[in-house]
Amino acid sequence: MELNGLKWFKIIEKGVPAIFIGQYEHNIDKKGRMFIPAKFKESMGDSFIVAQGLERKHCLFIYTQSEWSKLEEKISAQPYAKSQKLKRFLYSGAAELECDAQGRILLPLALRQYAELTDSAVIVGTGATIEIWNKENWEKENMEISSDMVMDILEEIDF
Question: For labelling alongside 84, which of 10, 27, 78, 133 has CA 20 to 30 A away?
């Protein structure tokens, strides 16, 4: 941390990926605008990608430009026949967004419909990405995660 005037600024080293953690709930206005948590916004960059969630979950994923580039490289490295359906799903349902002066994003209608977002959303940090969930779907997702399941995964990764 470095003192600069009256504000503290977090210095993010170039090449060090942002780690998004925490859970927040924000309203969505009638135009489809939603606040991004300040802790997330400072690490997201000027523009970022919002796409349909993977894993057959009706949520949205937010990728920083660098994470999106990594994903694109991995997809492009696959044989055409293997990657084309994923490209259609992911790219057709994605949008490049920026925060407005108030720190809000305008979620496109198609993405709001896909994630079943109406008047509020749960915004969740998941490490290198951020997820946006309908509150009821988020609660159902969390109910499916048991402590035994978490312990099994931790054992698998030798933690």
Answer: 133
What is d(CA 153, CA 159) in angstroms, rounded to the nearest whole number? 9
Q: How many CA atoms lie within 13 A of 48 on its CB side?
A: 27
* DSSP notation for 30-92: TTSEEEPPHHHHHHH-S-EEEEE-STT-S-EEEEEHHHHHHHHHHHHTS-HHHHHHHHHHHHH
Architecture in CATH of 18-134: 3-Layer(aba) Sandwich (3.40)
Distant-in-sequence, close-in-space partners of 97: CB < 8 Å, separation ≥ 6: 47, 48, 49, 50, 105, 106, 107
11 secondary structure, DSSP code = P
Q: What is the full per-residue pLDDT of the chain (159 aa) written as tens digits?
A: 344 433 333 334 444 557 899 999 999 999 999 999 988 988 888 899 999 998 777 899 999 999 999 999 999 999 988 889 889 989 998 999 999 989 999 999 999 999 999 999 999 999 999 999 999 999 988 887 777 777 877 787 776
Residue with tokens 């523009």: 47
pTM here is 0.81
157: tokens are: 């990764």
Length of the chain counted residue by residue: 159
